[in-house]
Structure formats: structure tokens, C-alpha cells
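Margin note: ligand = alpha-D-glucopyranose.
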Amino acid sequence: MKLLKLSIVVGALFCMASCCCKSSDLPDYLNPEKDIEVRIDDAMARMTLDEKIAIIHAQSKFSSAGVPRLGIPELWTTDGPHGIRPEVLWDEWVQAGWTNDRCVAFPALTALAATWNTEMSALYGKSIGEEARYREKDVLLGPGVNIYRSPLNGRNFEYMGEDPYLASRMVVPYVQQVQKIGVASCVKHYALNNAETYRHTTDPVVDDRTLYEIYLPAFKAAVIEGGAWSIMGAYNLFRGEHACHNDLLLNKILKGEWGFDGAVISDWGGTHNTREAITNGLDLEFGTWTDGLTMGKTNSYDIYHLANPYKELINSGEFTTKELDDKVRRVLRLMYRTSMNTDKPMGSLVSDAHIEAAYTIGTEGIVLLKNENNILPINLETTKSIAVIGENAIKMMTIGGGSSSLKVKKEVSPLEGLRKRVGEGVEILYARGYVGDTTSVYKRVDSGQRLADDRSEKELIAEAVDVAKRADVVLYFGGLNKAKKQDCEGTDREGLGLPYSQDKLITALTEVTDKLIFVNISGNAVAMPWIDSVPAIVQGWYLGSEAGNALAAVLVGDVNPSGKLPFTFPVKLEDTGAHSMGEFSKDGEENYGEGLLVGYRWNDAKDVAPLFAFGHGLSYTTFEYGEASINRKSMREGGRVTITVPVTNTGSRAGKEIVQLYIADKEASVMRPEKELKGFAKVELAAGETKSVKFEIEKEALSFFDDKQHCWVAEPGEFEALIGAASDDIRTSVIFTLK
Ligand code: GLC
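Resulting structure:
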């Protein structure tokens, strides 16, 4: 269908051109040589009121109308942030059963953030953009950059962690590369969608400083540096207005302060008020009358807020076409950048390059959290048997979890990846260990797995213990999954602990082996009460199609792990701001009482030691930091200072180290977090090699948002630049002043 329409447009262009008429004979709106704004003006001058109304709301579950009479194609959107969703039926959530829409699942965005490598973000955007382009989708509904405020938020796995600076740096290349292919990013969910269970009715209470310093920066970077062509409004309210039609967030900040020239797309079911939808910055309404996941009113498109109800309000004279023309202009601009863009590359689907990208990003995102006595990497020369235990060693994780669920060409499980990697030389013994989520069909996508197992907990643990006893090394793949109340859209977790009695199983295993390695397959932090008895811990994320290959490569040492945590692992829930000073996941006003003190900012302020700190991650080699030096002791207005720190690989194998720069304002007139991430660099070092890592610090890195003056302010005085391997592992620092 889409191809037909596109070929009509291209055909029209071709035949016009081929019958010896030059493009100058083409009407402006069809002339690719004309400036987009000229083409928009011409298209609008030709469109009727009905045609204008038609293009600002959905016509099907994931598409909105074009202007057939003028040869302007429809606009097709697709989930999601980790891969291209299978085609769904016209007006349904379930897949349409096509046989040509299997994709590559790339690692979840927490894993991308954990690479702390903007080159991986660019590779990600290019790869997923090519898959969207091949599937002829104009708008990719991703990436997500909501801040990880609580380890219980069901959708944290789709986002980039707890720190606004890290998320801001990592979102930009993804957006830029997707859009280079003529596919729009739709950065979501703007803003303050930090919990799931009450996502449609919660109204977070944050002051302007917290809003501007914590929850907006990643969206601002995506718009101003990334050049995002669309933004998705969140479900929740903010200060009494739904985020999908919120005057402050959309008109004043996004379009006003940031100059956003793209289209604001509602989340599916996020539009609740016709007049607000008209006046408060919504440009393209999708999914109304749905809960965004399951139910919906069949073919309700004509009664969408921005459909007939809007037209009636114009015909009654209550509204002119002022707001309508701005919406239409923005939607046409989105079209000219995507569906009407005639020099887009063709894209590709499940190419070797995309599979390689999923693997590479995965290996770069895996985080080695603990490695006592260097029992990792597993030495295949001396290891004769490996016990692989846990449901997450076999369970497919690319289905489930909500709108990011995929239909992949292939997903390599951890067990499969290990078997393939170790080959015949090493015996691998598997035991289920526990039975968690046995779902294998999701929105009619069938993983082909049959995970039902009616053995008792006692039998399952006994089998796992028996297998563990007989092996040289025990690899336990546990953690969470994509089931409701785990890492899943629409619901939040109910506690920090591992589900399905895993703690009991892990404890039983620690009694029979001192070579237990826990691989946490999750998008969220979990409690580890048994941590002192487990010598090695790996954060394995949801790595998508290449999960098993990436994990095996790191576990046997083919790849030296270089990821670091994009969020804090608290020892217990009360060690987080959201669960001690704030409220989490509730109907109505939800007080973000911790304010600025999200993540490590809270640990620093309250002097609470984390289980594993933001920015923590080990390597199979070791790194030493020399003394930081600074090129001048004071920064003048408009100037900068350069901090240099030598980093040496003091181990016996090459590795990559993520050097982090935090800034502390020693003389602030307002409360400021003890330190804030304002720079990072990932450096590759051969054994014995030293490199000088440089950080350029300008005034922006010293600033806080002054909500009285409503602007960013850097106060003269003393600052400290702290350089470290993690937020709780500062190696060197230097003091300087801002004049
Ligand atoms: C969902 C999600 C959003 C997704 C959209 C379409 O409810 O909140 O992230 O892109 O609806 O599936």
C-alpha cells in the first residue's frame, strides 16, 4: 500500500520530468529543488479544510492521512526504541501476520547508555533507522529518555538512566543518525513519565529547578543538538494539564524556549481534551480512546479531538484556522523531511551489519559489577564443565514488555550463545532453577518457546544444586523479565527484590560452590542480599538478537567488558530519594519530594553507600589515574578551562576505560547536589599504555537553573573538578575559580 502511494508520487515526479518538463514545471509543493518552507506554503494554499484536518490525526493504529488528491503520501509511524515493531492490523494492536517483517532487536536503551560511548549511539541510530526505512516507516517512536528516578519504574529499560548529562549525550547521535536516513525520531515521553501503573492520571510535582536540571535536559539536547523532527507527549499530567496538550511544556518550553519546529505527536491515548489539544501545542493525535496497550474504540478516527470535533469548532467560529495552520505546517514539515523526501537511502532489514551492530553495542554495554579472585573471564583451557542455571538463560526477552515488543528474525539466548562459543571441549549442564514467566506468545507474536514446567520449587532448586555441585563454574542467569510488574510498560515493580524466589535459589547455590557468577538480565536495579557469597556479578541487560553471543564473548574473555552503570543500584529501596523523600507511582499529584537528589545525587547528599554506584563498572584489566592538571586556575566570563588527566592501563590486556568528570560548586548560594556529571570520555588503552584525557569546561557545566530569574546561572566562586572511574570512585581533583 505504502509502496504503491510512494511510487505514485515518484511516478508523478518521473513522468512529469520524463516528458521533457523540468522540475521547474513542477508545482512548488512537488518540486524537490524548492525550499521546504516554500513547498509547505504551496501545499497549504492548495489544501481544503477537510484535508488540513485529516493530516493532524490518525487514520489507523499507526498511520495518519496524506493528501491523496495532491499526491502527498500518508505518514507511517512504528515502535519502538529497540527495533521495528511487526506490522499490525489496520486498527488493532496485534500483529498482522506478515512474513516479511522480522527484525533485529538491538540492546535495550539502558544497555546503550551503559556503553557511555556516543559512537555506539550513532551506530544504533544508523542501524535501527535503516531497518525503519526498509520497512517504509516515516517516524520511529523512540528513543525514550525519561529519567530513572526509581528502580521500580516498569519502563526504565527503554530509557537512558538516572543522569541528565549522560542521557543528553547519548540521545543526540541516535536521533541524528535515524534522521539522516529520512526517518523521523519521535523522542519520548515528554515529560516526567517516570512511572507506569498510574501513568494516565499521575501529575508529578516538581519545582522548576528540578524540571530544568533533571527531567528536561535530555529532551532539550534531542531537540536542539539532535534536531529531533518529532516529540511524543507523555500520558501523565503536569501542573494540571495532560502532557500531550500542555501549554507550559509544549508551547512555552518546547516550541518557545527551544524553538522546536517539528511535530508534537500524542502518546496513544494521551489526548483527553479538544480545546486544550487545539491551543496547547498538540500537532498530531494518535491512539485516542485506547489505554496505549490493549483496548481501543474501533475506527474512531473521525471523532478524535483533532478531527470532526475540531472542524465543528472552526465552523462554529469559536476557533479560526490559526492553530490549525500551525499544526498543518508542522505535520507537512515532518512529511517533507520523511515521506516526501525523495533522496532517502533505501535502508535494509536484518543485514549482517545490523546483527554486528547489535552484538557490538551489547558487548560494550555489559557491566562487570564484581569479580573477586578474577574468576571471570572463564578460562576455557582449564574449565571442563560449566553449570548454566536460570530461566533467563533460555527465555526470549525480545517479546513482551509492552510497545517495545518485537518479532525478531533471531534471538540468541545466553545458553545458546555459550554452547556455540565453548564448543565440544567444555561440558555445559543446564538447570532451570526457577519458573518465572512462561508467556511465549505476545500480541500474536509466538516465540516458539514452551516454558511451562510444573515441577515444584523444591525439585527445581534440588536439580540446580545438583548440577552446580558437578561443575567447575556456575553461571546463574536470573534477574527480571518482560512480564507485568517486572520490566514492562503499563505496570511498575512492587519491590526491589528478585521475583520467583530467586534469592532462595541463589543462596542454595552459594552453599555448594564458591565459583558462582550471577548474570542479572534486567533493565532495573535489583536487591542482592546474598552478595557477599557471590564472587562475580555481571549486569547483562536485555541485549536483543545477539544477547547470547555478546554475553558469551564477555564471560569467556573474548571481549574485555567496558560498560558502566547508567543508574545506581541501591542496597534497599529506602536508599533512594524517590522512596524516602518522594512519592512513587500514584494517582493524582505525585510529589517528587527528593527534587534534584535523584540517583547518586541522593547517595552523596545523604552519605548513603550504594550497592553499586552510578558509573561503576570493572574490567579484566586495571587502570590508574594520574594527577589532574588544569591550564589556568580561574575561568573568565565566556572562557573555559582545560583539565588533563593521564590514565594508564596497568593490567595485562587491552581495555576501555570510561573516565568521568564531575563538577562541585563549592560556594553556591543555593542548594546544589554535591557533584554532578559534566563530562566523560571512553578511552581504549593497550596494556601498559598511558593516554592524556582532556576535558574542556565552560560556564554551562558550572551552571544551575535559577528559577527566580528563569535562566541558567553560573555563580562566580570556587569549583572543584572531580575525575573518577565511578561516582563513588573519585581518583583525582582540581580546584579552580570562576571570575
Ligand atoms: C504506547 C507507549 C508509546 C508507544 C505508543 C504506540 O502506549 O506509551 O511509547 O510508542 O503507545 O505503541
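The chain is about 25% helix and 20% strand.
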